[in-house]
Prior knowledge:
The protein is 54% helix and 3% strand. It has helices at residues 6-15, 18-22, 42-78, 96-112, 116-124, 131-137, 140-148, 157-162, 179-197, 228-237, 242-258, 274-278, and strands at 29-30, 35-36, 167-168, 174-175. A hairpin with a 5-residue loop joins strand 3 (167-168) and strand 4. The longest helix is centred in the N-terminal third of the chain and has 37 residues, at 42-78. The radius of gyration is 22 Å and the shape is globular.
Amino acid sequence: MIITSRSDVENALNSVGFYRLRGYCFHLYDNAAKKYVPGTRFEDVLKLYYFDRELSCLIFSMISKIEVSLRVRLVESLLIHREPLVLQDSSIFKDKKLYWQNMSTIASEIARSNDVFIKHNFNNHDGEVPVWAIVEVLSFGTLSKIIKNLKTGTGSSYSVLAANYQYKSQKGNLVNPSKKMFTSWIQGVSILRNMCAHNSRIYNRTIHTTPEILDVDKITPMPAHNGLYQILLAMKYLRSSEEEWKEFVYEFDKLIEKNNSIINIASMNLPTDWKSHLSV
Length: 280
C-alpha cells in the first residue's frame, strides 16, 4: 500500500482503528499474493471510509423520516376502529399466539420508556396508554411485527395503511402492496437503519435481507446477493413524501459524484441507470 504520510496513517489508526479501516480494503487486497493490488493508496482507503460515513448519515436521516411517517400512518389505520386501546383487541390480529408475544414486547418497551407522555398516562389514566402514545415508543422492529400480524381485507387496518404506499402495476393501475411485500420493505429498511445507527460499513457489503422489489426495478441478471440498491428501493417505496425523497436522491447523487474517483457503484449493487430506478 502506498503511504505518503506516516502521521496521517497513525492519526487514522488512533481515531478510526485498524479493524474498521480494514473493511474498506477487502476489494483492494490480493489474497493469493498476500499483498495489496498495485496502486493502492492509504489516502483513498481513508476517503472511502469518510464517504461511507457521509452515506450512513444521509441514509439514517431519510430512514428517520420514513419511520416517523410510518408511525403516524399506522396509528391512523388502527383508529378506524375508534378505540384508543385498540392494540388490546386481539380480534384485529391474525395469529393469536403471535399477538400475545407481541403484546409482551410492547409492554416491555412501554415499561422501559421515560417519555413524559407515557408517565402522564401512568399517573392520570391508570396506566392505560392510547395507541398514539404506544406507537411512539416502539422499536422499528416491533412496528413491523404488529403490521405483519394485522388481518387483511377490505376495510381492515392493513388495507388503510397499505393505501398510503400504493404503486403502479404494469397495466398502470394503483395497487396496494401485499402484506408480505410491505413487511419485507420494512424489514430491509430496519436492518439498514440499525447498520447506520451502529456505524457499520455499508459500502461493498452484502446485506442479508430480501425486500421484494417491483419488476420494473429488478436487475437483469439478478445479483447473487442483495446490497444497498435493494434497500434503497424499499426506502423509495416507503418514502415519507415525494419532496423529501427527491431531496434525498439529489444529495445521494451529489455524494456519488463527489467521490466517483474512489468508489465503484457496482459495489453497492447499483445498476448504471440507478437514477431512473430511484426517481419518483
